[in-house]
């Protein structure tokens, strides 16, 4: 009979009977011992009433990080909700020019995600690196005031803001994975993304209120956004714990060791899949501009489009995180991209009026809820603790660089072929990316895995033939 297996999420150790399989043990051997126990029919059965305590393993640190993200997203979405309107209608930018700025907004500073991830792993100070990113994004909100109507200056400020996001994203997600047992990663990221989406839902509403009170002054939106972002930094400093004890105090991470991540087949497949999916995804601002033009919405109500997407994300993020832990993260993630395909097709489909807005924004919210945190949950079991932040940053960087190219290409397609043809080409690109991702991450025959059904990203580790001890 197999010995009882217990996992210590704080110390990242596995206890098999009286034996502790520590993090210092080679990763493949650790997976082999752990999986041989948890996949045995005689392994310790789940405790009764576990379904009633499905969020019990989501620790206080995850909720603290969720609070920081909630507050920060109120700030960032205040700006995001009005920026497309400000650039396209206020400054009269062409779709191609907007596509370039929109690409900068997400992708131009993507390489700094790798810098932030590597520095966080090397110093084991994830909270400090994340705090630097949150602070830089806060200051960038004020810098928008100085940029005025200068498009190059706005581009530089947006790049600085996204630099902050690039620095903070991987350390934040690494802290979530290091605060949560592997079997609960889906729900942990679901809870975090649900809290994040509360801020994303409130941000456009706050922007709408500020515009109404300040006679449509964009400067007032930027000032209030800075104040809210500063509050988020304070919450991070006071309440988030950096679980530095989760990583053994061994030699510092080297650049060579970080670069070795891509020699792992599961990591390579995840990075490639993230790039393909990012290349098939167009910016939110494009979707909202297309809806606004088709339905001839008043500029006053434009921020509510982002709020509608965030509401769907808010309602579905946590339930889909739990579903991903139960049925598999890959099916849930790919299902989200199917919803995205439907949303793109509806932009110039048979629906119109309020049904079009409700269904399209609902599908868009479903897409984010099924993909954002679930991709990080897929990556968690694949990456070693010492390189957790670097690995997450690598995946996010690949996706962000692909998104930069996607935004420019969609802006060019809109300007050349028109919005209807461009949106249909985007839908086709998503279908092709989903098919390629399914081939990349599908279960491999003869490979045992202790992950949920359909959660195949880490399947190669227990039986990596070229590395098996």
TrEMBL record:
Q: What is its main location?
A: membrane
Q: What are the record keywords, sorted?
A: Membrane, Transmembrane, Transmembrane helix
Q: Which residues cross the membrane?
A: 62-89, 95-116, 197-215, 221-240, 270-289, 301-323, 330-348, 354-379, 391-414, 420-441
Topological type in the membrane: Multi-pass membrane protein
Q: Name one GO molecular function term.
A: transmembrane transporter activity
| Span of domain Major facilitator superfamily (MFS) profile | 61-445
Q: What is this protein called?
A: MFS transporter
Q: Which Pfam families does the entry link to?
A: MFS_1 (PF07690)
Cellular component terms per the entry's GO annotation: plasma membrane
Report the locations given in the UniProt record: Cell membrane
The organism encoding this protein is Catellatospora coxensis
Q: Which domain of life is it from?
A: Bacteria
Task: Tell me if Membrane is a UniProt keyword of this record.
Answer: yes
Which InterPro entries does the protein's record reference? Answer: MFS (IPR011701), MFS_dom (IPR020846), MFS_trans_sf (IPR036259)
